[in-house]
Amino acid sequence: MEIFQKRQEGRLDSFWYEGNIAQQGSLLLRANGEIKVDFPDGERYRNGQGAVEATLLGWKDEDISKLYKDDKFHSNNWFEVIDLDDDNFMSETIWSGNYDRAIASLVDLVKERKE
């Protein structure tokens, strides 16, 4: 498996990741979707801007979970797997928002295809 973005300690939520994450064969794991989130300072951040600002603040998953609880996320991204050979989404992982679960799903899908 080729890893394009390594796991960040304390940052497993898809919020921290953008674009291609890992690939094995024709299966590509990527973070996709639009992020819109309001920070406590009143600023609204879109897509990677939020992760950059949160990183500068030293935030981890537990910090952004407070934004979820306070309904500050208007939209967030997710991890998904696509098959590059036919550009189909693999619906088994479409709702995964956790890096470790997304990587595990990619491994499982590769195994299933070999069976």
How does this structure look, described?
The chain has 115 residues and is α+β, with helices and mostly antiparallel strands. The protein has one domain. It contains three helices and eight strands; from the N terminus they run βββββααβββα. It has helices spanning 48-56, 61-69, 99-114; strands at 2-3, 19-24, 27-32, 36-38, 44-46, 73-75, 78-83, 88-90. It has a five-stranded antiparallel sheet with strand order 1-2-3-7-8, covered by helices on one side. It has a three-stranded antiparallel sheet with strand order 5-4-6. The mean pLDDT is 90.
β-strand amount:
25-35%
Q: How far is the first residue's CA from the last residue's CA? A: 18 Å
Mean pLDDT: 90
What is the percent of helical residues?
Answer: 25-40%
Q: Would you report the number of β strands?
A: 8
Side by side, the strands of the main sheet go 1-2-3-7-8
Low confidence ranges:
none
Main sheet makeup: 5 strands, antiparallel
Mind telling me the C-alpha Rg?
Answer: 15 Å
Structural class: alpha+beta
What is the number of helical segments per DSSP (H or I, 4+ residues)?
3
- How many domains? The number is 1
* Element string (H = helix, E = strand): EEEEEHHEEEH
The 3D shape can be described as elongated
Which structural traits does this protein have?
115 residues; alpha+beta; five-stranded antiparallel β-sheet; elongated
Task: Offer a quick outline of the entry.
The chain is α+β, with helices and mostly antiparallel strands and 115 residues long. It contains three helices and eight strands, in the order βββββααβββα.
